[in-house]
Amino acid sequence: MMSKLWGGRFKKATSPIVDEFNASISFDARLWRYDIEQSIAHASMLGKCGIIPLAESEKIIQGLRDLKNDIEAGKVEFDTSAEDIHMNIEKLLHERIGDVAGMLQTARSRNDQVATDVRMYVKAQIKEIDSLIREAQSAFIKVAESNIDTIMPGYTHLQHAQPVMLAHHILAYVWMLQRDRERLADCFKRTDVLPLGSAALAGTSFPIDREYTAKMLGFSRISENSMDAVAERDFAVEFLCALSILAMHMSRFAEEVVIWNTSEFGFIELDDSVATGSSLMPQKKNPDVAELMRAKTGRVYGDLMALLTVLKGLPLTYNKDLQEDKERLFDASDTIVICLKVLIEFVGHLKFNTTRMAAGLEGDFSTATDIADYLVTRGVPFRTAHEITGKLVRYCLEQGKTLGNLTLEEMRRFSDKFEGSNLTWDAWSSVEKRNIPGATAPCRLREQLEAAKKALAADLF
Ligand code: ARG
Q1: % pLDDT > 70, the chain
Q2: What CA–CA distances, in Å, run from 318 to 108, 232, 254?
Q3: Per the residue annotation, which of 146, 220, 278, 429 is the catalytic one?
Q4: In which band, very low, low, confident or very high, does the pLDDT at 7 lie, cut at 50, 70 and 90?
Q5: Ligand 1 centroid from CA 84, angstroms
Q6: Whole-structure pTM value
Q7: What residues does ligand 1 touch, defined as CB less than 6 Å away?
Q8: Residue 278 is a catalytic residue
Q9: pLDDT category, 394, cuts 50, 70, 90?
Q10: Probe target for ligand 1 pocket from 25, 320, 325, 329, with the most ligand atoms within 8 Å of CB
């Protein structure tokens, strides 16, 4: 039997299946770097405050640094019987520097230790994800810029609604991603609170300096309530919420790619580097990547639901249930990171069939609103104008005509407010007329592009 760090009050060994069930080292090993960094700060604080002798504190720190180098060099194997990463590190340190290692856990419990490691991990992930989102945003902005003159049908209910500029459509994703960044930055503020020093739940009798460790570890605040600090995982839930919304945004884009890539739409052709083939049908070029991106959303939502369910009904303070937070966090974060990398690659290779997109607007009635708006400018109430235009559309459908080739005489059969020679109802004048802030007109698009670039350039934390 391996002796347990908590073995003092036990007479018998735990059974192997219980050890296996209880252990988290198989997944929390990836927190090793944060655990060592945290322990170095803690040991340094203990020495500085005279809680352990300075010489011992230095020995511990040196031991931890050596251990870090050896882990980095791949020279260390974690022991699956040592339960979790915290006890593995402590055990490895003991093997190296002997009983002095035992001083490290003064004024610290695994409860505040694990809460600290997880917060350090989430902070690092938020930073990595933020920089990937920015890359994705700038890829979208490039697509918008290089297709600045492309017009296309805008959809509601997946039916042609009104003409829009492709760049306007693409920039919509930049703003979704911007809100994702803001949500993550907001989550960062609440994650950036140090639980260390809360010990098991009640705080500690040793005169520790929590501000000192906070500073060393780059936390901007310390927690206000030791019980809350070891028990809560709201920051992790918030992180998973933000990731879920981000996954949902990526999934909506992925769905558009799937639709645009159909032979019915033919708006895009996938670059070979981001497409896949069929093992049976030689002609196929499939959007597997977009489909997977769409599907991965389910994993991330699942991670969020799982963690919310773990936390629901947990009495204060620490309960072993909390060990279940890590795999959910790792899975969601890993999923989002790979999805973002794929998205960046994918958007970087987007090629539009702009002729086909513009052709979609021919005779599609998507400028009908412009007719109604025109009548309104001639003093007709909008509801009446809507009715008149509806009748005009029906007339066209019955006569096999389009709005573009109606004669003035035909229009005047529906309202004598139609006047003048240039009533053409074409898609270009439709977009050009929509020139209020936030609308699709090309002159507004240039403003929007500038605003998007500015948003992207700003550091949120
Ligand atoms: N592996 C544990 C976790 O992930 C560490 C904390 C254990 N604390 C305890 N009192 N059993 O939550």
Answers
A1: 99
A2: 14, 8, 40
A3: 278
A4: confident
A5: 8
A6: 0.95
A7: 24, 28, 84, 110-111, 114, 318, 320, 322-323
A8: yes
A9: very high
A10: 320
